[in-house]
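Sharing a chain and its predicted structure for anyone who wants a worked example. Both blocks are below, sequence first, tokens second.
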Amino acid sequence: MNNILYLPTRYFPSISGAEFYFQRMAELLTTKYNYNIEIYTSNAIDFKALRNSSGKILTPDNKYFYEVNSLKVNRFPVNYNISNKEILKILKVIPSYNALNLHDDVLERIVRNGPYLGDLLDYLLKKQDLNYDLIHTTYFPYFNCIISLIIGNFIKKPTICTPFFHFSNPRYTDLKVIDLLKKFDLLIACTNVEKEFLVQKCKIQPGQITVIPMGVDYTKFQKVNKKPLSNLSFKEKFFNKNEKKYKLILFCGYKNYEKGALSILKSIPYILKKIKKVYFVFIGPSTVAFNRELSKINKLEKVRIINFSPGNLTGYFDKKKLAAFKEADIYLMPSRSDAFGISFLEAWSMGKPVIGARIGATPEVIRENIDGLLVEFDKPKDIAQKVIFLLKNNNLRKRYGSAGQLKVSQKYTWDIVAKETHYTYQNLLTKFR
């Protein structure tokens, strides 16, 4: 049995692709491949809490604080009231940090992103049974990456990072900070285009990177898809009584500029000029910018928008979310900040066509004119044109959805991802023996 240390930025009930990936890998590798996985993370729920005390945190009285799906989770508080200068002073007395040879500017930028988990770092360095065979972290560029490298150096064990590198977003492409990624023994990229960027632009050695895509619980979505509509109807519950035959356009993710949520709102007036009978459903955490744009669009006559936040949902498999995917006519997420886009897989699992942005990793995930369409990022008119085109082509929607469904069943399930991750771990461990 191999002992693995997982150091994600956050963990369920925090919801995003990176969190879900680590959760499913921990669950499947434990049950199917006999790994012993210990999970150490922050108590942050939203991104704001990674660096600001006004963000949402998980408290010990929450049923998920100590355990999620029979796996123990160790959560530590984010240290907010400490300066970068103090953090640097603390780290520089740790030999395994100094051995990383990181420039002070790199640390300062990463600390700025958060979450600074000084208590967690101190706990691990003093832990008596620090007998891990491998350390795996995720989500770049956050402070848990630093902790992973410190502990890996301290116990002389290999370190892996799945960075979910959003290379189309300028915020992630600071070459000084990217130097941190070169310190890991292995990087797991979600797509070949992510690997190519890390090699060509970031000067990371090709042999230091392996490509493993994301996955979906395909059979769970299939069970929902095969249930009679009357047992799980989103339209029945949330559409007006005389509007059950209206089309449903679905977005699921952070409602911000990077994910394309604001661009969707701006595309709605153009869509309504051609197609009146349509609902727009947004599921995910809101932002100030989204709410501001939403208030403008809601003033339009006869616009129909249904807006859900995590507070209205129960998790990744919330019944309302699954019902929305089941009855959607199009899944629309024109994002530039996705290393893969698990929600595309969720839509395809339900046999739905998807529309994404022609930027970053998405053109590798979506096969244009085969299982979906691509639009230019932040171009509301282009988004509207593609939505209108698909809404008017029922056969094409079915064809794209079926092609995506077949692709997912053959290549993109969590079982497949866990199997590839298991082999990756074993190959790396063999090199270190």
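Comments welcome. The chain has two domains: 3-214+414-432, 218-411.
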